[in-house]
Write a structure and sequence with these properties.
- The complex is a heterodimer.
- Chain A has 1 helix and 11 strands, in the order βββββββββαββ.
- The longest helix of chain A has 4 residues.
- In chain B, about 35% of the residues are buried.
- In chain B, the strands form 2 sheets. In chain B, strands 2, 4, 5, 9, 10 and 11 form a 6-stranded mixed beta sheet that branches. A 5-stranded antiparallel beta sheet of chain B has the order 1-3-8-7-6, with no helix packed on it.
- Chain B is globular, with a radius of gyration of 14 Å.
- Chain B contains no helices and 11 strands.
- The chains are: A mainly beta, B mainly beta.
- At the A-B interface, strand 4 and strand 5 of A face strand 4, strand 5 and strand 10 of B.
Chain lengths: ~120, ~110
């Protein structure tokens, strides 16, 4: 089945380190998103991209950057990780023109811990 | 920008009872309101959505209602079952440019048998 794959599944890093989370998809979708999930805070939008040349800030982009290397790949970087970036990170995709709706397809998530 | 408030944060019901989760939004131009379900340890999945040109939509035991004047929408689950236990998130468009969504903080529904 076409899917959204995130790597790594789990990552422990230290304060100040640069870290990259990767997302790849085989759905052929144009639109990709990064969210973080914290207990009690729901899902918060970090960045999103509607095609390879399009990058947009979300609700909480400070401290993060992204790269859309290809239609199928969208990576999230933390330039200098800090403990309050400890969270579960989800990548998602959508393609309203293909699916006829705005349904988001989420990856399985990356649990990041910053010590 | 859009802001979404969701209540309650936790909800406990007996099997067979109904459950209602409510959300309010701030941007009167928003026109799409989905609900996602996240089971423990799993990824969120869309369960139902509604557009602003209708007031209610049903899919078996779940329904969503929308009140555009009051800017709120609700998820209704009837005849709850233990497998309905999960975290439910409402959402609305982040802006008018496209499909990016912002989510409420979630409601943890527990259905006891």
């Amino acid at each position: 089945d076409a899917d959204v794959t995130q790597t790594p599944r789990n990552r422990i890093t230290k304060t100040g380190k640069r870290i990259m989370l990767e997302c790849s998809q085989t759905k052929g979708h144009d639109r990709m998103y990064w969210y973080r999930q914290d207990p009690g805070l729901g899902l918060r939008l970090i960045y999103y991209s509607f095609d390879v040349k399009d990058i947009n800030k979300g609700e909480i982009s400070d401290g993060y950057s992204v790269s859309r290397q290809a239609q199928a790949k969208f990576s999230l970087s933390l330039e200098s990780a800090i403990p309050n970036q400890t969270a579960l990170y989800f990548c998602a995709t959508s393609d309203p023109s293909r699916d006829g709706n705005e349904k988001l397809f989420f990856g399985s998530g990356t649990q990041l811990s910053v010590l | 920008g859009e802001n979404v408030e969701q209540h309650p944060s936790t909800l406990s019901v007996q099997e067979g009872d109904s459950a209602v989760i409510k959300c309010t939004y701030s941007d009167s131009a928003s026109n799409y309101f989905p609900w996602y379900k996240q089971e423990l340890g799993k990824r969120p999945q869309l369960i139902i959505d509604i557009r602003s040109n209708v007031g209610e939509k049903k899919d078996q035991r779940i329904a969503v209602t929308l009140n555009k004047t009051a800017k709120h929408f609700s998820l209704h689950i009837t005849e709850t079952q233990p497998e309905d236990s999960a975290v439910y998130f409402c959402a609305a468009p982040f802006n008018q440019a496209g499909t990016a969504l912002i989510f409420g903080k979630g409601t943890t529904l527990s259905v006891s048998s």
